Every structure is written in C-alpha cells, then in structure tokens.
Amino acid sequence: MGRKSNRNQNNQRGKSPSASQLARKIKTFLDNHYGEEYSAKQIIKKLEIRDSLSKNAVEPILIKLVENGTLSKSPRNYYASKKDPDFIIGKVDYVNPRFAYIVPEDPEKTDGDILVKEADLKQALDDDRVRVMVYPNKGRSGRSEGRVLEILERARDEFVGRVEISPRFAFVVPDFKKMHKDIFVHRGDLEGAQHNEKVVVKLTEWREGDKNPTGKVTRVLGKAGVHEVEIHSIMAEFGLPFEYPKEADAEANAISEEISKKEIQKREDFREVTTFTIDPVDAKDFDDAISYRRLENGNLEVGVHIADVTHYVQPKTALEREAYDRATSVYLVDRTIPMLPERLSNGLCSLRPNEDKLTFACVFELDENAKVLKHWIGRTIIHSDRRFAYEEAQENIDKQEGDFFEELTHLNNLAKKIRKQRFQNGAVNFETVEVKFKLDEKGTPLGLMVKERKDIHKLIEEFMLLANKYVAEFIFKKNNGKDTFVYRTHDSPDMDRLEVFSGFAKRFGHNLNLDNERQVSSSLNKLMDEIQGKPEQNVLEQLAIRSMAKAKYTTEPKGHFGLAFAHYTHFTSPIRRYPDMMVHRLLQHYLDGGKSTDAEDWEKKCLHSSDREKRAADAERASIKYKQVEYMSLAEDKDYEGIVSGVTEWGVFVEITETKCEGMVRVSDISDDYYEFDERNMRLIGTKSKKMITLGDKVSVRVVNTDIDRRTIDLEFADNDEKPHRTRTPR
C-alpha cells in the first residue's frame, strides 16, 4: 500500500512562510495551549521553525499580537493566549493507540465528540470520566480537538491479561481491546503467576512521564487458551462475581418453603386453574406461567403469573443488596451467573410443576378476536400442571396431539392476532440472528447453530408484552402519570442515522420510506420480512438496531417506539432482572393505596440497572466472540463469502456468511491501493483506482490470524496478490 505524501510539509522545504501565515501558526499553537506561557525561543523550537528569516520574524509578530489584544505578555517576556477555550466533561472512548474520542456529557456544548491525541490524554483510559479543554480551532479533519486536563473518575483499575515474564521484569498484556498500554509488574508482585498465564492485575501507580502504568497481580486465573480460564477472564474483565456472598446465601437457605394459610388468604387462588410454563429446554429458573380458563360467558381468561420474588427478597437484607448490585443475570456461552442464589432462582421462586407457588399476576379476559375486555392485577397462588420446553409445546401444536395441545393452539391463535394488531399500531419487528455453540466436555466448540424462533416463542413473547404494557398503563392512568414508577422506554430514532441506514439497505435492493414515524415502522417491518434467510439478514438487522435509540429504565413515563406502546415496563422476569423487582414493589405499594414515592431515588436505581444491563450484554458478546474466534481457529482453511459489516479508518469489518463470525481486514494489509476513509459515508476510497469498499459489500475473505487473548479474527481479502499463511496465538 502506498503512503500519502505531505506536499506542504515544512512549506515545501524551500520557502519561508509569510508573516500572516506565521502569525496564524503562532496564534493557533498558543490558543491550543491555553494557560501555558512560552518564550519566543520556546515557540520557535515547538513550531520547528528552522530558517533564519522566520526566526527573526517571531518576536515582532508576538509583539504585534500583544498590541492587538490577541496575546498576553508576562514581565519575564513569556507569551500566552487570551482566547478562552471551552471546557467540557465527558467519557473517554479510546478507539486506538493513537487517539481517543471524548463523548461529552452534555452533547449541546460541543459540535460532536472531541478528538484527543494519545500524548494529550494525561494517562486517561477508556470510559474514564475526564475534564477536557477544547481547542478553539478545529483540526485538519474538521473535527473539534482538545486535551485532557483532569481525570475525574477512573472507570476501572483492574484488568485481565496474559503475563509475559523476562529475567528482570514482567508485563501484563491486557485482553481488553481498548486498553492500549501493557502493565508493568515487579517480579515480586506476580503472586506466583507463570509466563503466559492469565491474571487479574490492579493498577497501583502511573507516574507522570512513565509510558506504562505499574500494577500488582491480584488473582491468577490459569493457563491462557484453556476454556475455563478464558471464561473466568471474561468474568473478571467485566467485574462479574465468581460466587455468591455467604451472608446472602445464608439468608436464602434460611427461608421456609412452607406457604402459610394467612398468606394464601391474601391472594387469588388459581391452583385449580389449568396452568403451565414454557421455557428453553435447559432452563431451571421459571419466571412465568400461563393460566387458561374458559369463562361461562364464552370468553377466555388468560393469566400471566410471575414469580413473586419480592415476597422472599425483603428490603435492607443482604439478598436485596446483592440483587441490586448485580441487577441482572448474565448468560455466557457455557453458564449463567444468576442475580439471585440458586435456592431462590431454581427453587423457591421458580414456578416448577406440581408445586404451589406464590406469584404476581396480570389476568386478562379476551374475546375470540384477542380483544382485552377486562384485566385484573394482583397477587396469586398457582400450581403448575406441566413444564414444557419450547420444542415440546411447538410439537404439540404442530401435531395437534399431546398434553394441552388444544389450549396451546388456542393461545397461539390469540397471540398471532395480538401480534398482528401490535404491528398495525406501528411496532417494529426486530428479530436478530442468535448463534448458539455446541461445546464438548472441555468447552471446545464442535459446531454452531442459528437459533430458530417459532410460533411458541412468539406466543410467550406476546403475552409477556401484554402484561408489561397493562401494568405500565395501569399505574400511569391511576394518577395521570404523577406516581413514581419504573418504565422501560425507547426513544424515536434519529432520522439522520436512519437516512444513512436507508442508503446501505438500498445497495441490497431494499427501499425504506422515511416520510413519517408510522411509515418508518411499517417500512422497517417490510425490510425485515424481505431479508429473512438472505445473506445480508444479520448485517442489516444489526445496522438497523444500531441506527435506533437504546431502550433504558427510567421514571419518566415516556413511550416505547419499537413496541409502539404509550407506556411499557418490565414486570415479567424478576428472577433475573432487578427492575422487575422494583416494579413489583411499586405496584403493590400503589395497589395498597400508597402515595407517590421519591422519584430521584428510583431514578438512580434505574440508571444503575441500565448500566448493569449494558455490562451483561457486553460480557455475553465477549463470551460469544471468544467461541467464534476459537471456532474459526479450528475451521477449514479456505476462502469464505462475507459481507462488509463495518468500516473504520483502520480496518474493514466483515461478517462471514457461513459462520456468522466477524473479523477485520486491516487497511494496512490492503495492497492494491492507498485507501482513504470517508467518514460521512462510512467507506474507503482508493486514491488511484477510486475503488470503494463500503458497508454491505459482498466480499471473499480468508482467515490469516486468530487471537484468543484479544478475541479478534484477522482477515484478508481473498483477491490479495499473495496468499498468506494462517497463524494463531499460542495457547
């Protein structure tokens, strides 16, 4: 690949800059170093002014800039800018070793994210909260630039990585892709870790001027590349707990299994009503059950009964504190890290068959058109007649035989009508492709399969959505939205981002109508239907989701764009989500006639839950990515068809169609031309050939390297001149 020449370097080396050019250069330099003073000699050195004519011109220019009020001059003949810069607070997005972006807390204060070069980061790391000085003049790219003045809050001080030991010292090479510094460790602080083992290292010191931070090993995880070690590495990287605290476990084990007569009398008794659960085949925590009863008037009563977790987990207990801290269960490729201890999640609270269970319910009376005629919300007691796996229940519907096949078929028909009405009201059908690995006893991936969503999955989904919607609407209507409650909201999409997505979809022959919000929904649904089973399905689904706002928990009673609900909450999964526990508590409080509670306290809990939800999603993705990298390291050495799923200035991301695994072709490895990044249109353009590489392009690639530590797959375009040999990191 060729290198871009800097035609104006040193002003074409022969010519001196004009006085006005030199004045602008000096002013820009001092503006960008606000608060610092420099002598004329220091300015000449910093600006690398070498010709005598320009050197002699610096002092008179400085005096003139002082006279016109642009600069100030100290008694020591030092000069400084008088132009006040902007100061903002934001979070670091450390995209590559050369620079980071600062994402402002208040987006209105700046024109986009602030670019900060590595030398100006003041040892800030990814996701740190920092105070930044924004330079008055934009950089060459047209983007605002700045430098970090202060680290307000470290996002993390522990990292997972692989130890590299030499005779005199050791380093930990972090797994985290956005940690671009190796961590120096004194040999006495290795805690017995051996070369090439995975460890957790805590930062202890980072002196100004030091290139690398110093740390101390706090936990030795084991040999790199071993399945259990790598999963533990992911858990440690995201701060996920390895065990449940003894105090919380003891509280859980002390809870009685007996349900008193007094407790039963407080509840609606559904134990004689046909009830069943439908869950994944390997599930052990059954959050929800469906009751089914024909009424004398010919209508159907459908009850959505949810595990009554807050009956067992009381405020101000160790169980409550731990549930709040975890906020969600985390599902890695080979295990679940539960929010609640097993005694509760798989025992007391799990709606197991042939056992009396305490529940919180939303019960609907429906006609044959699936119209809700009445509903009731309150606490119940149930006795599940049957535990179905999704596959069993679907088979009973398909074959029209087996346990409760008539009830299941009727519920399925109603669910289809509810679903149809939801989409007619403007809901968006986002069904992403989910990959599941088949692992051997050592955790090695033997194969992968794409999870298929059938009618039975949609049946459960529709009734859960219905319950969540009616609970949210019930509270909102009770006092015209004035009562503090926990909502699940989803903002309308940014139309500019949708326009960009529409352009990518068009390359595959799909058109989006973006004239108004309702048409956006129906047009997106049409697109989702069209791409089912096609090579571009996963890429376009992911890009569509990225162009949407993110759903979050909040006390603000806003709507949910994706579901087309005026109000929505999470009520149906309290075993695995803390916000659902919050909803149960508030719901019962208002059912008992309680006054509105303090919104600020609940909003803090919402923010915490949203943060924990993101952490869980990131950890789940990391575990899947780890298995994808391992799977591709063992896969056949051949050319693969793929689709460009992302474009950056340093690389092209490609999703391999056959395996749904994503890798990257580095720009530096593309040998047929020098490519420049067109950020606005997310594409690379060859300077000579004008060849474009853009999102959605169909390409042929081969795997050239897999790195388990960094969870990366390096690809090369198959039409490159020389075919490289595949490599993989040692284990």
Automatic annotation (TrEMBL):
User: Where do the S1 motif domain residues begin and end?
Assistant: 637-718
Keyword Hydrolase assigned to the entry: answer is yes
Q: Mind telling me what this protein is named?
A: Ribonuclease R
Top-level lineage group: Bacteria
**Major site of localization recorded for this protein:** cytoplasm
Main role? 3'-5' exoribonuclease that releases 5'-nucleoside monophosphates and is involved in maturation of structured RNAs.
- UniProt record similarity statement: Belongs to the RNR ribonuclease family. RNase R subfamily.
Q: What class of enzyme is it?
A: hydrolase
According to the UniProt record, where is the region Disordered? 1-21
What organism is the protein native to? Algoriphagus marincola
**PROSITE patterns of this UniProt entry?**
RIBONUCLEASE_II, S1
Intracellular or extracellular location(s): Cytoplasm
Report the EC number(s), separated by commas if there are several.
Answer: 3.1.13.1
The answer to keyword Nuclease applying to this record is yes
> Which residue spans adopt a coiled-coil conformation according to this UniProt entry?
none
The UniProt regions of compositional bias labelled Polar residues, in chain numbering, are 7-21
Keywords, A to Z, come to: Cytoplasm, Exonuclease, Hydrolase, Nuclease, RNA-binding
* Catalysed reaction equations from the record: Exonucleolytic cleavage in the 3'- to 5'-direction to yield nucleoside 5'-phosphates
